[in-house]
Amino acid sequence: MTARIIDGLAVSQQIRAEVAERAAALTARGLKPGLAVVLVGDNPASQVYVRNKVKACQENGLHSVLEQYPATLTEAELLARVEALNEDPAIHGILVQLPLPAHIDSHKVIETISPLKDVDGFHVASAGALMVGQPGFKPCTPYGCMKLLESIGCDPKGKHAVVIGRSNIVGKPMAMLLLQASATVTVCHSATPDLAHFTRQADIVVAAVGKRNMLTAAMVKPGAVVIDVGMNRNDAGKLCGDVDFEGVSKVASAITPVPGGVGPMTITMLLVNTIESAERAAR
Ligand code: NDP
């Protein structure tokens, strides 16, 4: 079997086109959707991420504000900025780029963002809403993974989904979204003995670990759908996921590549969340 490659770039472009239409409709009504991106310090990877987020806003008709502060910014100063953005009617989404410098409590910062503008979906209120099935912002990466499944007509209902990883930003919300979609969900992590025992039973595998080649062909049931969230570098410095793409694509029925799979979806779902927030403000 040769797996179908799930084209995250194409799905992303399609959703971004819808975002641009919705942004134009809101703007025509006098409410331009706005995202504030806050960066503290000079982490090079974070600088690339925030630049890409701002660029995606510009390309799709959203207003964006990039606030950059030196690593010496105090926690109190950052909290005051977040509170000011909470009150700013031109801003519908607030994203504080993580990681923050060690002297700032990330948890406190996230909890200061208004749940109405928490487009990253990291606030406890957003996580709680997801847990109990209430409306709220879904974390962008798992939300994007759900859209990728949808794009290939893979309905999780009745399927066994195995999520590898249990972080608050990927693994746990991914498991919740799959559960909401009526999959039977197993969550594996570093203390799971015999990971392959679980993955071999899965109709859908989502790998969100951060270790390259950790999911091999022998661990995958023939015909399974494999979503690779991992972002790692191989020995040559090339971007790669958690999945042995070569091997697994011979066993799976569909698979996301890295790059070009989950990656482009994360920023796209950030735009979707910001648009949804602005639409709510316009009601
Ligand atoms: P974390 O490091 O927070 O979580 C990794 C998870 O993997 C943990 O739950 C850990 O278990 C588990 N784990 C570690 N080793 C093993 C193992 N040998 N077997 C099974 N489980 C294991 O990472 P994130 O969730 O933040 O990110 C995961 C990956 O996804 C990273 O590569 C990251 O770069 C990437 N990523 C990609 C995004 C994208 O847009 N494409 C967005 C966000 C993340 P335990 O809890 O027990 O420690």
Automatic annotation (TrEMBL):
The keyword NADP applies. The gene is folD. GO terms for molecular function: methenyltetrahydrofolate cyclohydrolase activity; methylenetetrahydrofolate dehydrogenase (NADP+) activity. It catalyses: (6R)-5,10-methylene-5,6,7,8-tetrahydrofolate + NADP(+) = (6R)-5,10-methenyltetrahydrofolate + NADPH; (6R)-5,10-methenyltetrahydrofolate + H2O = (6R)-10-formyltetrahydrofolate + H(+). CDD domains: NAD_bind_m-THF_DH_Cyclohyd (cd01080). SUPFAM superfamilies: Aminoacid dehydrogenase-like, N-terminal domain (SSF53223), NAD(P)-binding Rossmann-fold domains (SSF51735). Belongs to the tetrahydrofolate dehydrogenase/cyclohydrolase family. The keyword Amino-acid biosynthesis applies. This is Bifunctional protein FolD. Its EC number is 1.5.1.5, 3.5.4.9. Residues 6-120 form the Tetrahydrofolate dehydrogenase/cyclohydrolase catalytic domain. NADP(+) binds at G165, R166, S167. Residues 139-281 form the Tetrahydrofolate dehydrogenase/cyclohydrolase NAD(P)-binding domain. Homodimer. Pathway: One-carbon metabolism; tetrahydrofolate interconversion. PROSITE patterns: THF_DHG_CYH_1, THF_DHG_CYH_2. InterPro entries: Aminoacid_DH-like_N_sf, NAD(P)-bd_dom_sf, THF_DH/CycHdrlase, THF_DH/CycHdrlase_cat_dom, THF_DH/CycHdrlase_CS, THF_DH/CycHdrlase_NAD-bd_dom. It comes from Caldimonas mangrovi. Catalyzes the oxidation of 5,10-methylenetetrahydrofolate to 5,10-methenyltetrahydrofolate and then the hydrolysis of 5,10-methenyltetrahydrofolate to 10-formyltetrahydrofolate. Pfam families: THF_DHG_CYH, THF_DHG_CYH_C. Keywords: Amino-acid biosynthesis, Histidine biosynthesis, Hydrolase, Methionine biosynthesis, Multifunctional enzyme, NADP, One-carbon metabolism, Oxidoreductase, Purine biosynthesis.
